[in-house]
Amino acid sequence: MRTVTKTLTTGLLAVAAALGLALPAVAATGQPAAASPGAGFAYGTDSFQMTVTGRGPYAEPVIGSAYGGYMGMAGNWARTLKCKEGTLYALTPVNAGQANANFRTYHVGVGTGVYWYMGGPGVDPKWNGTTAQAYHWGQEQASLTLQAIKGKYIPYSVIWADIELPGIAPAPDNGWNSVYTSPCSGAVRQSSVPAAVDRAEFNGYAAYLTGHSTYKVGVYSSPLIWPSIFGTGVYGNIPNTYEWTYSPETANLAAAPSGWCLRGTSTCAQFFGGQTSASKYALMWQWSGGGGVRNAYGDFDQIDIARMK
What we know:
It is a single chain. This protein is α/β, with parallel strands linked by helices. 22% of the residues lie in helices and 19% in strands. The chain has helices spanning 10-19, 77-80, 93-105, 131-149, 195-211, 225-230; strands spanning 41-46, 67-76, 112-117, 158-162, 179-180, 188-190, 216-221, 242-245, 257-258, 261-262, 282-288, 299-304. It has an eight-stranded mixed beta barrel with strand order 1-2-3-4-7-8-11-12. A two-stranded antiparallel ribbon has the order 5-6. The longest helix has 19 residues, at 131-149. The two termini are 24 Å apart.
């Protein structure tokens, strides 16, 4: 996903060092051979449109194999609040339709799913510093998510809360670690947000979504970003929440993964919040194109389809 260009600032590098995390190296883009995602897995894409080949069943762009799924943006907090910056909307009906055709007609992959690009407590127009208001802000964004997909065919059963630090205006941290004078101002009035307040917002989002739909809740984040927002204690622990990670990443499409590891390497998906790839809640890995490690095409995902059956 990472629908905007991301750069790891000096501050984030310091966070990585403090947490003992190694950042992935940017590999040269390779020309991939025909690839297989491995038993129980499928390749997919997310966000902006990519060229998907075939006439049904459709094939994964560039690397081959069946096209196993598409994840698109249901909405964006900055767009909802009518900010002038940071309002990208990354959903293409073309790829969504192709993924759904493969799923519905050819019984391939998972079809289309969605994520909500979340604003943290610090960009809540009603911020007052309490967990109660943060919980309400989470509920409000969940309600907006369900409104955005109402009447659309979204067969993938997990909706993703996109929790990240984008590094762009109007809020480089999306309001998770700073409080702004107003959501779109870009001016910080408080340089910290308690982890308890951040977690209250996520809890509100999850509770509303599951209480008002049949969808399950997942989180899109990484083992670098997640603890820098929620910490490594009780507020950062999510052992029973579905996860989509974007760590590590590579620009080398010839290393397209089989299972949870890049082919020909010892580099494997890293999850967060106390989970590993062995968890039944570890579902997706954006292994190229999203978290600042670019290739020439777009965002590529590895999807565990066996765990959703």
